[in-house]
Amino acid sequence: MGLRNGVVCDGLGLCKFSLFFKRVKSSLHVSRFALGVSKVLLVLVVLALVASSVLTFAFFTLLNKQKESTQTTVAELSSSFTSSSTSYVSSQQKSLRIGIGIDADTLDPAGQTTTTISNIVRFMVESLFIIDIDGSVKPLLAESYNVSSDGKEYIVRLRKNIRFQDGTPFNATAVKFTFDRLLNPNVKVPGRAYYTVIQNVETVDTYTVKFVLKEPYAPFITVLAFTQAGIVSPKAVSELGDKIATTPLDIGTGPYKFKEWVKGDRIVLVRNENYWNGTPYFSELVFKVVPDAQTRTAMLLAGDLDLIIQPPATDVNTLKQRNDVKVFAVASNRVMYIGINTQWGPFKDVRVRKALNYAIDKEAIVKNVLFGLGQVMDSVLPAYSLGYVRLGPYPYDPAKAKELLKEAGYPNGFKVTLITPTGRYLFDKQVAEAIAQYLREVGLEVEIRTYDWPTYVSTVLAPLNKTEVQLFLLGWSPGSPDPHFYLYQRFHSTQFTPNGFNNFFYANAEVDRLLDEGVKVVDINLRSEIYRNASKLIWDDAPNIFLYIQYFVIAHRADLTDVKVYPYEMFDVAQARLSS
């Protein structure tokens, strides 16, 4: 109960007027006629007050509900929707709206560094081969291939009667042009190391191409399946020049072609009406940039998006229970880690780097931050990769961390900056905050900085003489489980950024020797042993805080069918359609 301006109100905001009425009545010293008039007026006043109170109650009730709704978690929000409440566009819809967490840094196939944007680009361009859901490599634009006995020559026969989106023919000349461009030092190709083994590319005839390698390269067919190796139209690319990064018009043979990129908002592709492998159902793919995962989920449930990448881990189980939403949660091949600049101050000492690994409770992060959508790393490689050997995990031992810091000469810790993207990975900012807190508990003074994805990419790919990076959250998801793609570009000393992805600036001559040897060996058992030995050295040198393997989650409207989801964090909707 409470008194509001002379009106007694109960806890629900419903007011009683008895006290007010008595005060008004006692103050009336007028004639009977005046009293009659006063009674009428009094009744009108009371009625007005009742109406005002009811309106006030309704207003505050609505306001409170609106306030509560903005504070409601998406899990609560989704549970408040019934299966019939989602209002999607009708079944005649021909635009598929996809919510992604980051904007692109470039749309040039050769410049791809992250699976989200590579996924978009590969709707426009296609490679000679494709890595299927089961990890096997199959022909796509290629028809077949042969390898020489010494493993240094690959003859690839191409499909016929395929044209680029600009109308020019797909042929051996286009294949040679694509790979010559990948090897051109004037073209920005972060993944060039995969292709430097190529000595030259020859056009045998219109539909046959020969790759001559400098030395045997066991995963060569696999690298021909990567997005960077998407075959491009010589005519379109030559005319575009540097504009290929922002307006890649008609560059590929894929099911969709570029329409527009509104930075920070959307990337739009339109159907290739002359696609060689079956006309897509949707006339348009709209990739909407929505950095906040909860907002993406809310937009899906409101019918403003048809498919989203990485909804909040908190809401996956709730979404699975809905009739109007379908969820895929698959163990991906993405390893998540904190990169350590091994050339910076305290991090030159391996004892400090190991201390950081002991300081973090990875199990707690997976359980409490990711809600179980991850698996703690116990090796440098995932368990299904050739050469996997269980080496850990580093146990959570803050006392051990403090001891190592003291031995290294930092009993009181030191100042360090941890940077993170936001919206790129599952709860990336929250994971970074948890890690910062663990590091503070062992004495470090940690500052966190967050960046949008394009800025983050340029920051973590800076060369050693320009980088300001000390600790950074990053994930690595190669398109293949082959150990070469997990280890070479990240841990070989020739791969310091920007030439590769070794932004830890880690160097170990024995690791280099093993990685050089492993890529040339064809014998599976010998290769496995080589990569096991390399993994042991890297694990012991601790150039990363080894965290977890992240799950890949997408959710989409239930009547969207024929969506393919790959374990290397990509999906395909080229043959998807609405069933309703």
From TrEMBL:
SUPFAM superfamilies: Periplasmic binding protein-like II. One of its GO terms (molecular function) is peptide transmembrane transporter activity. Keywords: Membrane, Signal, Transmembrane, Transmembrane helix, Transport. Residues 137-496 form the Solute-binding protein family domain. The chain crosses the membrane at residues 40-63. The keyword NADP does not apply. Pfam families: SBP_bac_5 (PF00496). It comes from the Archaea. Belongs to the bacterial solute-binding protein 5 family. PANTHER family: OLIGOPEPTIDE-BINDING PROTEIN APPA, PERIPLASMIC BINDING COMPONENT OF ABC TRANSPORTER. This is Solute-binding protein family 5 domain-containing protein. The lineage of its organism: Archaea, Thermoproteota, Thermoprotei, Desulfurococcales, Desulfurococcaceae.
